[in-house]
Amino acid sequence: IQVPRIQNNHQVLIQVMSTSLDKADLLSVSGWGRAERRRMHGGFTLGRDFCGVVIEVGIKVKHLQPGDRVWGAVPYTMPGTLSEMLVLPGSIVEKMPNNLTWEGAATVPHSALMVWNALVWDGRLKPDKSEGIRVLVVDGVTDTGCLATQLACLW
Length: 155
Hints:
Layout: E1 11-20, H1 23-29, H2 34-41, E2 49-57, E3 69-73, E4 85-89, E5 93-95, H3 102-105, H4 109-122, H5 143-154
Antiparallel strand pairs: 1-2, 1-4, 2-3, 3-5
Helix pairs in contact: 4-5
């Protein structure tokens, strides 16, 4: 298998340690968005969330270095994460907390981004300015529902 190489100074090469599937992946298997993704990047690979180890960084990527434990979620316009190695823009890769396992970390990024978007960007909740605000979390047993409930209670 040919190992991918970074193509520009803003990219990161990652050895994938764990990845996860979500509802969008299950919908993709049923046909949703498959033709569009094939057209965009010539193939069809499932997976949005990942965690792994940085192997190589472009010189413009300042927040990461080889050996860092990282995680992230790729947008649907990019190939999925069910791969051994990924080349991604450094802007969508972050260091993961050290107290998480590879398997646990791979289930968080996409769901956390959706919750953050809903509560912080759209809902305008802030840690120091949310007292007394009520948040309705529908379907709190899902991955996003659990994270939304925890964040709303924390604030």
